From TrEMBL:
Protein name: glutamate-1-semialdehyde 2,1-aminomutase
Enzyme class, spelled out: isomerase
Single GO molecular function: transaminase activity
PROSITE patterns: AA_TRANSFER_CLASS_3
Similarity comment: Belongs to the class-III pyridoxal-phosphate-dependent aminotransferase family. HemL subfamily.
Keywords per UniProt: Isomerase, Porphyrin biosynthesis, Pyridoxal phosphate
CDD domains in the record: OAT_like
């Protein structure tokens, strides 16, 4: 449940005994996993002069050039106040804005940066690949390598198609599920986000909710008429939909752990119940693992929970910071995809050598022993520290984590679904958010987003963050 710390294989680290992994300052260019020692020291100096003047000027220009000044609405600061911060560079677990402020980053480019930003090995591999060109528009060997890695890692995937974003992956997988079953209806859950394609813009979670838009104008009714919705963690609502649409449901798509309504975990019998219902009713089960893939464990949520869907979507991490997405599943279903089969889906830059290279090197690093233990240790310490500090200061707060994904809500909880999440005190979150920014900590600018840690986050980062939270909790 989201109101408790998720049970995990590795025990909690006491927040009073930080493990110093290295005392040696590491230069920004040569830094790898523990690159933040020098940077965290400078945080205290920086925040004394915290100003966002250059950021504000740049953003005022951006607003005239691009809608809302951003190229993705989740970057807006509408729900936390102030203006988005214009960033200059990233390295490891840290980001620097154009005013020179430094932040410990828990957004990780919204998920991809799981081994840390601008990893030296990934950058070097990209430089090598680039010498041979950036896009062939023809098969390249690197596609085989990443495909083999994905197939070996993700239990449900026997064949994979690479695309350029999570949105594209979800669009493709829905068409495939409809083509394979010959049925048109799809069940999605309130507060789950599956990209911005028309059929999914129904009760679509964070980005839409944060802006206060119920749905989006421009989405034709015809595009969503076959989209059925149910509250997350509610098996009886799903059963009722199957009963009232007998023989019509092609698939259920869901985030196996929700990150787009804040962090919400599935109830113990939810995923197995959904698996059972889909089998009973001849529908496919699709796990949207764009966020959870390679994050909750190397095999994603399906490996973590031991539930195998028919189809899976991926994105974010498998592109190592370059634009990528993928969908895959049983061979028999995937062979419907063109040119092997009749279901059409294509992409000019799909499987390009740069994205494949960044993905391959990111997965290689993740596969090294200890990666998920590290994510688990630092994230448990972080979320426990934040919850303890919040409660000590008298706030209603609940939260949880699994591996390198976490979240907390300003409400007593429990939070089982999007309606529960909406009961949280978003105004208080806004005050907390602004306070944390001034302390040099960068969370996603919405109460309805999950947070992410990386292999580059150190115990020092976590201790700094908890100390900042203790201070800010007392002020809000
Ligand atoms: C679960 C999930 N599915 C799909 C998407 C869409 O991915 P993209 O932003 O790459 O189009 C996202 C994006 O955050 C996501 O979290």
């Amino acid at each position: 449940m989201a109101n408790t710390i998720a049970s995990v294989a590795v025990g909690m680290i006491s927040s009073s005994t930080p493990k110093l992994l290295s005392q040696r300052p590491i230069s920004r260019s040569s830094s790898r996993r523990f690159s933040t020692i020098k940077m965290t020291v400078s945080l205290d100096q920086k925040k004394k002069n915290f100003t966002l003047q250059k950021s504000e000027e740049a953003f005022n220009v951006a607003k005239e050039l691009m809608p809302g000044g951003v190229n993705s609405p989740v970057r807006a600061f509408k729900s936390v106040g102030g203006q988005p911060i214009v960033m200059d560079s990233v390295k490891g677990s840290h980001m620097w804005d154009i005013d020179g402020n430094e932040y410990i980053d828990y957004v990780g480019s919204w998920g991809p940066a799981i081994i840390g930003h601008a990893d030296d090995e990934v950058l070097a591999a990209l430089a090598e690949t680039m010498k041979k060109g950036t896009s062939f528009g023809a098969p390249c060997l690197l596609e085989n390598i990443l495909a083999e890695m994905v197939i070996a890692a993700v239990p449900s995937i026997e064949m994979v198609r690479f695309v350029n974003s999570g949105t594209e992956a979800c669009m493709g997988v829905l068409r495939l599920a409809r083509a394979y079953t010959g049925r048109m209806k799809v069940i999605k859950f309130e507060g789950c986000y599956h990209g911005h394609a028309d059929p999914f813009l129904v009760k679509a979670g964070s980005g839409v909710a944060t802006l206060g838009l119920p749905d989006s104008p421009g989405v034709p009714k015809a595009a969503t008429i076959d989209t059925l919705t149910a509250p997350y963690n509610d098996l009886s609502a799903v059963e009722a939909l199957f009963q009232s649409h007998k023989g019509e449901v092609a698939a259920i798509i869901l985030e196996p752990v929700v990150g787009n309504s804040g962090f919400i975990t599935p109830a113990p019998d939810f995923l197995s119940g959904i698996r059972k219902l889909t089998k009973e009713h001849g529908a496919l089960l699709i796990f949207d693992e764009v966020m959870t893939g390679f994050r909750l464990s190397y095999g994603g949520a399906q490996e973590y929970f031991g539930i195998t869907p028919d189809l899976t979507t991926l994105g974010k991490i498998i592109g190592g910071g370059l634009p990528v997405g993928a969908y895959g599943g049983k061979r028999e279903i995937m062979e419907m995809v063109a040119p092997a089969g009749p279901m059409y889906q294509a992409g000019t830059l799909s499987g390009n050598p740069l994205a494949m290279t960044a993905g391959i090197h990111t997965l290689r690093r993740l596969k090294e022993p200890g990666s998920y233990e590290h994510l688990n240790n630092i994230t448990s310490e972080l979320i426990q520290g934040i919850l303890d500090a919040g409660k000590k200061a008298g706030h209603a707060i609940c939260g949880g984590y699994i591996s390198g994904m976490f979240g907390f809500f300003f409400t007593e909880g429990p939070v089982y679904n999007f309606d529960d999440a909406k009961k949280c005190d978003t105004a208080k979150f806004g005050r907390f958010y602004r306070g944390m920014l001034e302390e040099g900590v960068y969370f996603a600018p919405s109460q309805f987003e999950a947070g992410f840690t990386s292999l580059a986050h150190t115990p020092e980062d976590i201790q700094k963050t908890i100390a900042a939270a203790e201070k800010v909790f007392r002020q809000i």
